[in-house]
């Protein structure tokens, strides 16, 4: 993985990583934050332990990941609330198709049944992704595995976890619990893991962010937006000023940046994948980016330079 590595290995679900040396881009001061969107997706399927550990290898210190709920109300890491293509195959080995999504809704399934599905198939949109054996991990497993991996490799710094609660108004009781219950489940996992200082909670659904803040106003919160008019309206509905408003990068302009900064709100746009877009977000005053290609961002001249 790196030239001149010290000896030693670390295994995550049958994928072996060499321990990196104590050097790399993460040793530089990074006021501009690089968040790995669902892990290092260029290398491994999204939201897998392998993708998260690979992100740590390349110097990422903030992981963006997605949360859904099982029938027993366990919090697992998955972008979609169902099992389907392109990443998953059934217990009998049959690759799932997009038409399987309503057949395998995880909120109706036990975690034992969910874990029987292999979700380490590569996404054709990321041609360098490696095939791995992987199941949908519990959030607690992600916390424990990534922290242990970094400690075993002697990596400097600690990982921050930006948790996106996947919640949709109109889908309460179908894909997830109602906002108050959902927020309580997530906050409890964070508090019991002792990671309150290293976790952020964000969602497109202001309802669940608001409920989480009521339970623990000391956590860091963010509001995701994908339409310009949502910024003002959802901030009003939220009822408090979050640390972050994270917009789709194509919405970001000077006017939006000034609107948020005047309210003391930082922004970390998503999903910013082209070098010229990364630099443009920094020029517009973003505090960082969420990207599928953190390895590009970390090595991009001018992106991490101090002003």
Describe the structure.
The protein has 307 residues and is α/β, with parallel strands linked by helices. The longest helix has 15 residues, at 179-193. A hairpin with a 2-residue loop joins strand 1 (9-12) and strand 2 (15-18). 28% of the residues lie in helices and 16% in strands.
Mean pLDDT: 91
Helix content: 25-40%
Could you tell me the CATH topology label: TIM Barrel
Identify the CATH architecture. Alpha-Beta Barrel
Low-confidence stretches are: 1-10, 16-29
Counted by DSSP, the helix tally is 9
Major sheet description: 8 strands, mixed
Query: N- to C-terminal separation?
Result: 32 Å
At a glance:
This protein is of the alpha/beta class and 307 residues long.
Reconstruct the topology from this structure.
Blueprint: E1 9-12, E2 15-18, E3 33-37, H1 49-58, E4 62-69, E5 75-77, H2 111-114, H3 139-152, E6 160-165, H4 179-193, E7 199-203, H5 206-215, E8 220-225, H6 230-238, E9 244-247, H7 254-262, H8 275-283, E10 288-291, H9 294-298
Parallel strand pairs: 3-4, 3-10, 4-6, 6-7, 7-8, 8-9
Antiparallel strand pairs: 1-2, 4-5
Helix pairs in contact: 1-3, 4-5, 5-6
Question: Descriptors for this entry?
Answer:
TIM Barrel; globular; 307 residues; disordered N terminus; alpha/beta; 28% helix; eight-stranded mixed beta sheet; single chain; two-stranded antiparallel sheet
